[in-house]
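Q: Here's a chain of 69 amino acids. Please give me its 3D structure as C-alpha cells.
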Amino acid sequence: MANGFMVITEKDWEGATPEQRSWWTFNTLQQVHTRLTRLEGRRWYDKVSSFAGGIFGGALATLGIRWGS
C-alpha cells in the first residue's frame, strides 16, 4: 500500500481473476470515497485557515513587507 491505496501493477492485474479485479475496483472506490468524505469535512478548518492567512498577509502588505524578496 502506498499513501493508503493499494498499488497494483500491470503484471498483477493481468494475472488476476475477474473476482479479484472486481474486489480491487470496489476497494479502491471505497478508499476514494473515504478520503473525499474526510476532505469535505474539513470546511471549518479551511475557512479559519484562509481567514487567518488573509489577516496575516494583509498585515504584512500594510506594513510594506515584501514576501520572498
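Q: Can you summarize the key feature?
A: Residues 18-40 form the longest helix (23 residues).
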